[in-house]
Amino acid sequence: MNKLLVAVFDTEPAADAGLNALRALHAAGDITLYATGVLARDADGKVAVRQSMGDGPVGTVTGLALGSLIGLLGGPAGVAIGAATGTVAGAVRDFWVAGVGLDFIEAALQHLKPGKVALVAEVEEEWVVPVDSALEAAGGQVFRRSRTEVAAAHFDHDIAAFKAELASLDAEASHATGVAKTRLQTRLATTKAGLDAAVHRAEQRLDALKQDAASKAALLKLQLEQAQGHAKARIDDRLKRIKAGQHARGAKLGQAWDLTKEALTP
Hints:
The protein has a five-stranded antiparallel sheet, sandwiched between helices. With 266 residues, the protein is α+β, with helices and mostly antiparallel strands. Strand 2 and strand 3 form a beta hairpin. It has eight helices and five strands. It folds into two domains: 2-146, no CATH class; 151-264, no CATH class. The chain has helices spanning 12-28, 64-73, 88-98, 102-111, 129-137, 151-175, 178-226, 229-264; strands at residues 2-9, 31-41, 47-54, 117-125, 141-146. Helix 1 runs antiparallel to helix 5 (129-137), helix 2 (64-73) packs across helix 3 and helix 7 (178-226) packs antiparallel against helix 8 (229-264). Mean pLDDT is 78; it is low at 55-61 and 76-92. 63% of the residues lie in helices and 16% in strands. The chain is elongated.
C-alpha cells in the first residue's frame, strides 16, 4: 500500500540512521522508498527543513505527495492550515495531493516537540513490521497513514456542484423576464467561467499526478531489475498490484472527464 510516514527522533543523527534503515529496506525489496525529507522543530516551535525533499534512492523524482506533507507539517506551530502558501487554499491543495487526514498531521505535529527531528517518507509497503522495527531500533516513533486517492472524488464533487448551480440558474432564467432575466444570464456566464477555471486547475493537477505515477513506475521497474531472489518476486507482485490500481483510477478519472464534458455542453 502507498503510505506516508513520519518518524520522530530526538536528534538529527538518529534521523539519518532511520533514513539509512529505510534505504536498506528498499535495497532488500521489503519496501519501495519513493521520497524522503528531514524536518526539525526549534526551541521557538518553528518547523524547518533540515534536508530538502530527496529523490528516490535510485534518483527518480517522486515527491508530489511528500512535498505536500512537508508543506502541511511546516505550517504554523500546531496548526496545519496555510502550510503551502500561507492561505487556506494552499492547505486544501496540500491535503488533496497528500491524501491524508488532518488527524494524521495533528498527531505528527503533537509529537514533533521543540528540539525533535522528523524523518518523512513516502513508501510502498505490504506489512508494517520491517519499517517499524528498523525505525524504532534507531530511536524513532513511527506514524503512518495510507494515502487515499481523492483526485476523482474531489473532481466529481466540484463538477457536480457547478452542474447543479448551472441547472438551477438555467431553470430560473427560463421563467424570468426583463432585468431579472439579464441578471440570471450574467450569473450563468460567471458560473460557466468558474467551471472552465475549475477544469483548467483539474487538468494541471491530474497531469502532475500522472507524471508522479510514471516516476514511481520507473523507480519500481529499476528496483525490480536490481533485485535478486525472493526480493525480486515481492517487487514484481508489488508492481503488478500498483499497475492494476492505476488502471482503476484512470477509469474513474475518465468518468470524471465525461461529467465535465457533459457540464460544458450547452
